[in-house]
């Protein structure tokens, strides 16, 4: 229950409802507990003595008490809904805000499918448990205790029977809960796996169709779905014992009441109404215990979900601001890597980058070349602190980037990532995503520089064209150009284009480069490209091989000094292009 208690802080705004709801439930329970006693009065005093007036008066009183109880129960339900729904909404919002603070390393560990499950199903489990806790879990114990008290007051000679039954049922329920609890964690993990498969399939549905892998994806989803079903059935099989077990105890108890009570009535030691009243209280006692056991099982599942929620809330971003980090500073864009080593494994696994040293001055264009896995993207991700270096340091204008507040640092860096991500909304909103206050003129200027203006204006709605999810109604090249415009609009000191023109034709790419030369005249640009034609005019070309800088220089210098660069050049442009080198 530790994790559930940890989430209790989200209940503070709803304390009023949390207090009033149980009080109103106490009113409903009190009214319910009086009913069997009034029935006893009708049987033993009204019917036995043929007192019709007493029967009518007591009957009307029962109706009145039932109405009062109904008002209490209804109001309790309203307050319980307010508290639980508000709690759930606040918890989801806190989880979402937390995810926004997490670093790339944290998000690498917490997969998208897991986060979706935790933001939806896990929160729903905890929210449902809270609602039942306020409503049913308050009612059931009060009814149980109240029934036992009424038994003592009305038929103390039969008190031993409900106590024995309570002990037997309680032991059985505790054994069931102990077996079911660990299974709930596995259910949520299986749900994670299902959501991951579904999220991957929906995101990559075009690839699935292009490679005719629909059957394979159906099998993947089917396997994950079956795993979830099997585990859920396993839990249900354990829980299924609860109801028959409690009903067995209840029926045995009822038979015992009728048998022993009948003997006492025949002997004149008890009245018929007392037996009816006692049977009612016994039923209420055992039903209350059964309800409590079911709620405890729900809370057990909620505890498993609460642990998973707490895991996200307690996650510490691997990249954090220092207490006195620099803020509100404009940089010129001089980037330096000083003996940088980097590994994605925080425990010191094989480094992705090893002893990287170079300087990129303001106004310079630095191109990164290398085979897949050479470390190009990893290198540029260290500049905006998506990850922190393992050793060495990265500086911006001589300041270690770890000494700069993350938001300040990233406002000085524009980046178009390798995977183009656009959001639902208009093209205008996507371009000014990083600067919501940018004017329309600035948006158009950035789009023109990214060679996006013409195709945008070809749409009937122009910049107000609404994009589908992930920009589905645009081509790959169009999405990349909008992503470049979004980065340019920041007017950054450092611009990073991570293979962001791979879907653009050579002519358009040349125009983008020409526009960048003017826009980034006093700024630093990093360009990762697969096409060597993209990097020919760069001020500095870094050739990466196995996480190290294998060669550094201009195109002319590298053609003369670097076999690796020469091999890449010749493989793409052919020997006939040597004369142009």
Describe this structure in words.
The radius of gyration is 35 Å and the shape is elongated. Strand 11 (540-545) and strand 12 (548-553) form a beta hairpin. The protein has three domains: 11-185 and 238-313, Up-down Bundle (ABC transporter transmembrane region fold), CATH 1.20.1560; 323-412 and 493-576, P-loop containing nucleotide triphosphate hydrolases (Rossmann fold); 415-491, Rossmann fold, CATH 3.40.50. The longest helix has 50 residues, at 52-101. By secondary structure, the protein is α/β, with parallel strands linked by helices. 62% of the residues lie in helices and 10% in strands.
State the CATH topology of the largest domain.
ABC transporter transmembrane region fold
- Overall tally of domains: 3
- Helix and strand content put the structural class at alpha/beta
Mind describing the biggest β-sheet? 6 strands, mixed
Task: State the CATH architecture of the largest domain.
Answer: Up-down Bundle
Give the CATH H-level superfamily of the largest domain: ABC transporter type 1, transmembrane domain
Strand order of the largest sheet: 6-9-10-3-11-12
Average pLDDT works out at 81
Uncertain regions: pLDDT < 50 for 5+ in a row? 576-581
Helix percentage: 55-70%
- The end-to-end span amounts to 70 Å
- Rg, nearest Å: 35 Å
In CATH's first tier, which class of the largest domain applies?
Mainly Alpha
Q: Tally of extended strands?
A: 12
Tally of contiguous helical segments = 19
Strand content: 5-15%
What gross morphology would you assign? elongated
């Amino acid at each position: 229950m530790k994790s559930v208690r940890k989430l209790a802080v989200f209940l503070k705004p709803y304390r009023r409802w949390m207090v009033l709801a149980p009080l109103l439930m106490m009113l409903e329970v009190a009214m319910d507990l009086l009913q069997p006693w009034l029935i006893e009065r009708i049987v033993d005093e009204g019917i036995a003595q043929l007192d019709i007036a007493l029967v009518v008066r007591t009957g009307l009183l029962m109706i009145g008490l039932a109405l009062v109880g109904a008002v209490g129960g209804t109001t309790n339900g309203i307050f319980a809904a307010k508290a639980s729904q508000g709690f759930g909404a606040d918890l989801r919002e806190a989880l979402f805000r937390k995810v926004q603070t997490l670093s790339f390393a944290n998000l690498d560990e917490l997969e998208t499918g897991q986060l979706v499950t935790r933001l939806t199903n896990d929160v729903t489990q905890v929210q449902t448990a809270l609602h039942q806790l306020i409503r049913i879990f308050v009612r059931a114990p009060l009814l149980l205790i109240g029934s036992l008290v009424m038994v003592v007051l009305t038929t103390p000679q039969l008190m031993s029977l409900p106590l024995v039954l309570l002990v037997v049922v309680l032991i059985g329920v505790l054994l069931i809960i102990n077996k079911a609890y660990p299974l709930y964690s596995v259910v949520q993990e299986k749900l994670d796996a299902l959501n991951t498969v579904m999220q991957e399939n929906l995101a990559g549905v075009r690839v699935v169709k292009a490679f005719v892998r629909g059957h394979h994806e159906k099998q993947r989803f089917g396997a994950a779905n079956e795993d979830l079903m099997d585990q859920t059935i396993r839990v249900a099989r354990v829980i299924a014992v609860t109801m028959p077990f409690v009903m067995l105890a209840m029926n045995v108890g009822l038979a015992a009441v009728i048998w022993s009570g009948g003997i006492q009535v025949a002997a004149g030691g008890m009245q018929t109404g007392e037996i009816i009243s006692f049977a009612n209280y016994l039923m209420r006692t055992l039903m209350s215990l059964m309800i409590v056991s079911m709620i405890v099982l729900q809370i057990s599942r909620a505890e498993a979900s609460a642990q998973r929620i707490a895991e996200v809330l307690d996650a510490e971003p691997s990249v954090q601001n220092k207490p006195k980090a620099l803020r509100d500073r404009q940089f010129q864009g001089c980037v330096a890597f000083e003996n940088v080593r980097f590994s994605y494994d925080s425990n010191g696994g094989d480094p992705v980058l090893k002893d990287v040293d170079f300087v990129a001055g303001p106004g310079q264009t630095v191109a990164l070349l290398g085979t897949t896995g050479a470390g190009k993207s990893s290198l540029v991700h260290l500049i905006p602190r998506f990850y922190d270096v393992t050793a060495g340091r990265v500086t911006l204008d001589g300041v270690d980037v770890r000494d700069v507040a993350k938001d300040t640092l990233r406002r000085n860096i524009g980046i178009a990532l390798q995977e183009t991500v656009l959001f639902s909304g208009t093209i205008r909103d996507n371009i000014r995503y990083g600067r919501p206050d940018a004017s329309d003129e600035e948006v158009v200027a950035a789009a023109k520089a990214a060679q996006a203006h013409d195709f945008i204006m070809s749409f009937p709605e122009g910049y107000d064209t609404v994009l589908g999810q992930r920009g589905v109604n645009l081509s790959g090249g169009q999405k990349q150009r909008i992503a470049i415009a979004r980065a340019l609009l920041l007017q950054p000191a450092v611009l990073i284009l991570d293979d962001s023109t791979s879907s653009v034709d050579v002519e358009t790419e040349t125009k983008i480069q020409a526009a960048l030369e003017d826009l980034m005249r006093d700024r630093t640009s990093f360009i990762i490209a697969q096409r060597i034609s993209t990097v020919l005019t760069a001020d500095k070309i870094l050739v990466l091989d196995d996480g190290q800088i294998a060669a550094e220089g201009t195109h002319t210098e590298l053609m003369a000094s670097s076999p690796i660069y020469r091999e890449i050049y010749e493989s793409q442009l052919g020997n006939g292009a040597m004369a142009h080198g």
